[in-house]
Every structure is written in C-alpha cells, then in structure tokens.
Specification:
The protein has 5 helices and 4 strands. With about 140 residues, it is mainly alpha-helical. The strands form 2 sheets. The chain has a two-stranded antiparallel sheet. The chain has a two-stranded parallel ribbon with strand order 2-4. Helix 4 packs across helix 5. The chain has 2 domains: about 55 residues; about 60 residues, no CATH class. It is flat and about 55 Å long.
Length: about 140
C-alpha cells in the first residue's frame, strides 16, 4: 500500500515539475509572478526528497552490515549535501574514530537527515561534530 502511495505521489510531483517549468518559461517578463517560483521549487524538491527517503525505508531490507569509516562517510555526505543544497555543513571530526559495523546506506541517510536539520537553523556553515566517547 505504501509503495503505491509513494509511486502515485511521484507521478504528481512529475506533473507539478512540468507545470512549474512551463510557468517559469511563461513568466519570464512578470517579476511579480517570478518571486513565487523559488519557494514553489523548494517545496517540490522537499517533497521529492521525502519520497526518496520513503522509498529507501520501504525497500525490502537486506541489512548489509559492513565495516564503515564513519568519519569518511560523514565528510562525503556533508560535502554532497552542500553541493546539492547550496548550504555548507562542516563535518568536524575530533580524535580518531574507529571503523564500526553499520548498515552504510542507513548511516548515510541519518547523516543526510542531520544535515537537513542543520539547514533549517539557517546558519551557514552549520557544524556536525563527531568524537569518540569520552572526548
């Protein structure tokens, strides 16, 4: 049931993207109308991102637990987030983190969610700090 809802929602997002693109082209000379486009695009992008997360959540799990370098994964995800969203999230790693056994896609999603939360503060660059226990 959830997959069907996600699929249908993605179809609606595709339609909205198409109409938003047309509106963007048609409103080239209308400054009053153009000011509404960025928030509309951002809302649509947020909905699409949420659907991607839901797809990952409902995808049949094959719980692949592997040794993960948490510091490297955090830096990669923060850098990718900064490029995609034009919002800097600085990954600060204190001390040496040992590789740990994790489901890497799940930890990447978690770090991405932390970056999204940091973005909501509006303070750029935001900081995501990791340290071994006891530091």
């Amino acid at each position: 049931m959830a997959r069907k809802i996600i699929h249908d929602t993605n179809n609606y997002y595709g339609i909205l993207q198409g109409y938003l693109s047309l509106l963007e082209m048609e409103s080239a000379d209308d400054e009053k109308l153009r000011k509404f486009l960025p928030p509309m695009k951002e809302a649509l992008r947020s909905g699409i991102d949420l659907n991607k997360r839901l797809v990952e959540f409902y995808r049949p799990s094959q719980e692949m637990v592997t040794e993960v370098d948490l510091a490297s994964v955090t830096r990669e995800v923060c850098a990718a987030f900064a490029q995609e969203h034009d919002f800097a999230v600085e990954a600060i790693i204190s001390g040496k983190l040992k590789p740990i056994l994790l489901n890497e896609p799940a930890i990447r999603a978690l770090v991405g969610n932390l970056c999204s939360l940091a973005r909501k503060t509006g303070t750029s660059p935001a900081r995501l700090e990791l340290a071994p226990a006891g530091l």
